[in-house]
Each structure stands twice: as C-alpha cells, then as structure tokens.
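Hi R.,

Here's the chain you asked about this morning:
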Amino acid sequence: MRKPVPSATRCKLFPVDPDGIDPIAKAWDKDTVTARSQEQSGATLSWSTSGYSGTGRVEISDTQDPATTTLADSVFDTWDLVRIDPITGAQDPWLTYDQITKVELFQLPAGSTDPSLGTWVDAPGDPCPSACDGTFPGYALNSDEQRATTIGFRLTYVESPTRVDRLGTPGAPPVGSGVAASTGNDRHIHPVFQLRDVRRSDDAVPVVADAVYNVAGEPGVVSNTVRATGYWNIADTEPILTKTAADTILLLHVPVTVDATKTWTGGPLGVPAEDVPQSAYPTSRVTLTASNTTPAKIDELNITDPDTSDQGGGSCLTSPFDQFNLVGFTTITAPGDIGADAVNVHLSPAPNGVADYDRAGALALTEGDLAEVTAMTITYSGRIDAAAGAAIPTATVSYDVRLRAESRSGSQPPQAGSAVCNQSHAAASDMVDFPTYTEAADAYRNADIDLVAQGIDVTAGKSFDPTTITEPSIGPVTVTLRGQPSGPSRTVAMNLEDSASSNACHLLQPVRLRRSRADHLGQPRESGHCGRLCRRHLVRQRCR
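And here is the predicted structure, written out as tokens:
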C-alpha cells in the first residue's frame, strides 16, 4: 500500500526593501586632530551583506563617488590616503572564504583639481588577487606624487576560488553562494589618512581649524563618506544595492609656542695685563637653545644673537660683541634631528664676503674668519616636528668667544669689576608663506659674564689613611694629595708635588716603607715607586 504524498508546503516570497538594509558603517579612530600637525588618523569601514547570500561582487569605495564629488566636498581636500592596513581574521572572520580581486585608486592627472578628469586605476604594485585569496596583506602609497593625485580607493570582493579548501566550520558559506553572507557589519577595512597642510583644491589656502569644509556651518569639521555596492554577478555593471555611511572628525587650533635657554659659561674672566697678546686673552662659551613647544608642526625656528631690543626690566640693550670676538661654532643641531629640511646660518658682517652658510660651512669657520662678525641668525626651515609629551624638538647652537683687548666702539680695554650682558631671541613661526594666516611666538633670554682683576691662588691638602701604623706593620698607607685652584683668573694647569725629604712617600719618587734590620726605629728607605700624577685635582698614592 502506497503512502499518500503530502501536498507541497507553500511559501510566500516578499521583495527586499532596500531601505531596510544597512550594510555599511564608518568611524574615524579619533574624534579630533590638531590642525597643521600632519597628524595621522585611521578610520574603520565596517560592512556586511546584511545576511543576504548570492551576491557575486561587493565593492567598498572611499569616498563614495570621487568622480562626481568636488574636491571642496571631499575628505581628500584636507586629507591624504597613506595606506590600507592588512586585514586580519579578527577584523574580518569571513575574508577566509572570499578573495579581494584588486585595489584601485581614483587618481587625478598631475596638477589637476578637477575630479571629473580623474580615473580609477589599478594600484601600482597591487598585491591582489594573487596574494589576496582569503587574506589581505595591506597596501601603502609610497610616494608623495601618488598621495598628491589619489582622491579615492576601492576594494573588490568576490567568492574565493579556493573556498572549498577551507570549509568544515559550522556556518561556513557554501561553495557557489557568492560573497560570504554575514550580518552586523562585522567585516572591517582600516585605511589610514594624514592631515594635509594646504587644501588640495587650492594650495594657496592652508588647512586651519576655523575654516568651513564639507559640513555647512561647522568650522573645522570634515566628513568622510564610504560606499558599499553589491552586484548579482561578478561581471555585472548594474548594482543591486548601493549604500553609504559617513563620519566626521574635528580639526583643533593650538597657538604657536616656543621656549628657549641661554648660558654663558667659563667665567669669571680675569682681565689680562696690557702686554698680553690678543690671542692669549681668555675665552668662554655661549650656548643657545630654541624649542618648538607647539603640539603642531611649524615652518621655521629661529635663533638671533645678540638681540638688543627693549623687552622691559632686565633687558640687555648692548651687544657683547663690542667686547668679544667670535672664535667659532662648536655645536649646531642637524636640521633632520628636529624634522627640519635645512638650516641657514646668517652672519653679519659677512665673513670673507659670504653671509649665509649651511651647518657644515658654519662649523668650519675659523677665528680668523669670524673676527669681525657681530651678529648671527640661525634659521631652521621645513615642517619642524611637533612637541609630543616629553619629546620637545630643540635646536642647540653653541659658540666660543674671546675677550677683546679693546672694545670695538671706543677702543677701551676691558674693565675689571664689570659684567657683560647678552640677550638672545628665539622665534617659532608657522604658515610663513601665507601672510594673512602667519602665527609666531617669541622668547628672549639673557646671560652675563663677569670680568675680574687678574689673580690666581691654590688651596693644597694632604692626608694619610690610616694616620698611624704600629710596628712591625709596614702598611699599606694611602696618602691623598689635594689641590683646588681659585681665581679670580682661570687656571690653565696645576701641578701637585710631594717632595719633602721627611715624607714617607714622595710623589713620583722611588719610595717604599719597610723595616730595616740596621735601623730599629723603622725609618723608611727609598726603594721602588709610589703614586702617579693624574689629570684631576686628586692624587692617591699607595705605599708599601
């Protein structure tokens, strides 16, 4: 007897409502960045098929339509694309079942600001599709030219041709079902952008926080829109769904700030006798620093010395070079150490008829070259690093000076009991090429050096450790000789000598403490060496 065949179960099909599908989202990694900082920020593009299978191809584009979006309305007016980070399994658990077939860049012709002239091109050095089956190694824009012309990127997803090799996990998409179906926008792409210094649409206008960009009425706010596009078949040109999402980031303004230090070491300086030649007059060292303390990059960092402007109480209104000659530069920070492109040392009057020098040229100048120089300005230029926590980009310049036998202004000899002051000026500047936007900050620092009458003295000392020994002990005994020079003049050399004939030890003399059978009192005899002369003011001798 045959069993009755049940009637077919009826199903009612409902059309998909595109408005109810939300397959794409976007979020900047940061809420705010500092304008003029060249700061980088990533963004997370999150997408899914909203649970639908059978999608042959999915394209994720950022921005949503670069060919029809004016630069002024695009995130790329104020940002450059730096890279697209590798996609890990944690970022996209479904990528193992798919393949990214290509990375495309939307590029403008060189020098153009018209997006309608741009085209989608295969990214140079694109690792896909061969290295993008079930994975994505990332892509970086490695040249300034590539960044300058790129105003969009696009990744294309299809079903992996080797999906069957990775099946077996519950929930894995079947072979032939298209791009892996998922929900909750749990697939992520992480591009990284860098803030521009000037607008791409008009390089005569800097990117600043108080300007309005692509969000009407919101100064400093920049919006970025991403688009997800789905196609039934890989080769289709008409999409079945197009959706966009956007997020904003705020540019902040910070004022330019600068700090500086100044020291003048080597004093006090004794004034030599009249018959001492100029070449034997004492020298001292001036050290100047200028620091960009702005949490943003700047265009210039300057050090001017001397500065005789009136800055209120304590200002130095005279030039130290009236009584000193410039001997030579000992330190000039390399420009690359602070992110600068170059450093220029301007000297006045111009030595050997040349006023401007690079770092190597300035360090090579001799005392003879610099004898008439009475002013200097050191300028670091480029995009000087921003201050970040304890990392403060600082330029250091140090130079030696020699006291003159006669002043430049009145041919007067230096006066003991006087002090020579020196004021310097440090300046930080940004947007120097945009006069209506230029910002600057200043710092003034002073240092003095005293001139004193010529004179020299020394304090000597000597000690034994232990202070007594008992026969038949022969030691050892440590003898310490001390010498401390005192001025007011600077000491060039100091000798320590221990030569008294009654000493148990003589510096650099053959001495040895020993008992003698012929001398029951245990008086020492000279035999061997004890001690040595050293460079410091402390000499220790061990005597046996």
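One quick note: The first helix runs from residue 144 to 149.

Cheers,
M.
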